[in-house]
Amino acid sequence: MATLSDIGLSAAINILSALTFLLAFAFLKLQPINDRVYYPKWYLKKARHSPTHRGASVGKFVNLDYKTYLKFLNWMPEALKMPEAELIDHAGLDSAVYLRIYLVGLKIFVPLTILAFTVLVPVNATNATLQKDKNFVSSDIDKLSISNIESGSPRFCAHLVMAYVFAIWTCYVLYMEYETVATMRLRFLASEHRRPDQFTVLVRNVPPDPDESISEHVGHFFRVNYPNHYLTHQVVYNANKLAKLVEEEESLQNWLVYNQNKYERHPEKRPTRKKGFLGLWGERVDSIDHYTTRRNSLVKKAAAERERVLKDPKSIMPVAFVSFNSRWGAAVCAQTQQCKNPTLWLTEWASEPRDVYWHNLAIPFVELTIRRLVIAAAVFLLVFFFMIPIAFVQSLANIEGIEKVVPFLKPIIEVKIIKSFIQGFLPGLALKLFLIFLPTILMIMSKIEGHVSLSALERSSARKYYYFILVNVFLGSIITGTAFQQLNKFIHQSATTIPKTIGRTIPLKATFFITYIMVDGWAGIAGEILRLKPLIIFHIKNMLLVKTEKDREKAMDPGSVGFAEALPTLQLYFLLGLVYAVVTPILLPFIIVYFGFAYLIFRHQVINVYNQEYESAAAFWPFVHTRIVVGLVISQILLLGLLSTTAAGQLTPPLIALPILTIWFHKFCKSRFEPAFSKHPIEEATNKDTLERVNEPNLDLKEYLRNAYMHPVFKMDEDSSDEEFERGSLKDDDSLVLTKRQSRLNTPKTSRNPSAAAPADCAVDL
């Protein structure tokens, strides 16, 4: 059980770590040689020039102007200066709304902290229940929790009233924020510049036709059903093997450039390597010749594979991107059922081109359900088996409980400084380390599931991560921590009193979560701004692989917010704050420090560093809102259970209504605001179409959309591929609907009556 001194030592370590990271960042960002690492976003926007091009030879690498070192904290006010409207133009709505989540945390928890410390902390601290129970393991911090109030005490009324006050304030903040974000999204979509995804839908599960190719079938279907709005389409090729060859070719090119640069620096000796695995064995050969030969061979393989993909009908998947001549047409198609068979011609809004995850478009539609079932089982097993390291972490956090059962460990861990370090710092650090590879594992699982956009992949991974955190980090830590902490009491008491013991010990786990907040939310966030890994990688690439400014730009790694990990972590802090606001308010100041500090850090990163891979117009917000409400309901249910174990049963009936009202509030918000995130208003589409026709009457929309959804591996050689890609889309002639269908009697090859040429799968009755 961590004491005040243990928490103090942990706070000192984490504050010192955070200050060290911030000072290191302040120094490193001033050096000209690191400018591209700490301001890559401005370089990508062509709004910043490298300071290494100016000054003396030493000044290109080290900042010699001592005055700049006196202003090393200027980045903090600079991060807060940019107005939100300018931030949206600069970084996108996703980044702006992500930052608003931290402000929501401050809006909720600052008033809650003031109320809790004004009302609840005095109510809890003036009791002496924990001091009287000698068999119950507790610390000084726990005397400020609800566990310090004796069973049946009327003081529980204060907690009941505060539970209602906290819930009302939280719901009010969430409602106002949902309304604001929904308005921001609609305004952003209305003011957004023309993009290919505004005119395009993704069509999946195209049925086979015995007389037409997939491309012809798609064109035929949409010419018939959208005769005045269909513009063009692009079928999807299974180019996964080609993409892998291109990736290998780029890797060999990097090795070739590295060896060429090495030879240029030391022309007296050509670089060599062994031909075996990783260059560890085999015949020694000239490295430049070796990589040149291998790359040329791979280029030929890639060219042959490319030609095969484009000419083989089997490489065309039953998937297509269909574009319309208006946003209205795309909105209608994306939001309606296309066929009487609801499993065919499935349509949805196309993701913007940079958001498409091309690899999964090649997965047959019938496999998706099986894949998702398998991954659901795998996630369950992962959550189940991860309880083992969680239990180990909790064993570190509850030394006193273990000492009672295993007394021979006492001499080793009773040294004061070691004990404080183990209990106050090590549990949070151990949990952080155990979770470090989890987001990568969950992202791989999401890719196997078959999601076809990066944004969907991140939302799916975030959902899994949230469930994992909820079950393992939160509930798992409480359950296993309680078992270790009160192990002696569990062994010597009857089974009927165990629930009461658990109910009293839930508030006591606040000390563990405090240590985790300091490790992850203080030192961890400060480490984010230092960008140590991108810094090292950039300088290695810059030294070994860079020849031109374009190469140097490729060496930059701006990264992105990473919603798959960032959002579940945020939701964990909301959950902890809401659960412990009533039962152990001492945790709230640590939550507030996290939200304020993280907002400052991430605002700086969004403005200067991160380059988002896609823009979803804050499509993730409904999930954020839902999980905050889930955290609120969990806090109310736990409080209900806790009061029911403390002989305060007369207070539970009024509390039962609270989670019911909270769920009703969520349903209301869902019906009121969520359509803005799942549907596109026809009115808005029509207005934008009208304005565009007035302002750009000569716009060639088909040319604009022609290669928008071409697979990236084909875009590398667009000039030579355009003619071949004409096979993937039909030439337009509005007066005719062409078909090669021979299998239906009395169906002409060419008809001026669209219904007469309707596809067999969803035929129009004649």
From TrEMBL:
Region (Disordered): 722-766
GO molecular function: calcium-activated cation channel activity
Biased composition (Polar residues): 744-754
Residues annotated as domain CSC1/OSCA1-like N-terminal transmembrane: 8-177
Bilayer topology annotation: Multi-pass membrane protein
Keyword GTP-binding: no
GO cellular component, one term: plasma membrane
Limits of the CSC1/OSCA1-like cytosolic domain: 198-360
Record keywords, A-Z: Ion channel, Ion transport, Membrane, Transmembrane, Transmembrane helix, Transport
Subcellular location: Membrane
Bilayer-spanning residue ranges: 6-28, 101-123, 156-175, 373-397, 417-444, 465-484, 572-602, 623-645
Lineage: superkingdom: Eukaryota
Main localisation: membrane
Keyword Membrane: yes
InterPro entries registered for this protein in UniProt: Csc1-like, CSC1/OSCA1-like_7TM, CSC1/OSCA1-like_cyt, CSC1/OSCA1-like_N
Domain spans labelled CSC1/OSCA1-like 7TM region: 371-643
Family under the similarity heading: Belongs to the CSC1 (TC 1.A.17) family.
Protein name: CSC1/OSCA1-like 7TM region domain-containing protein
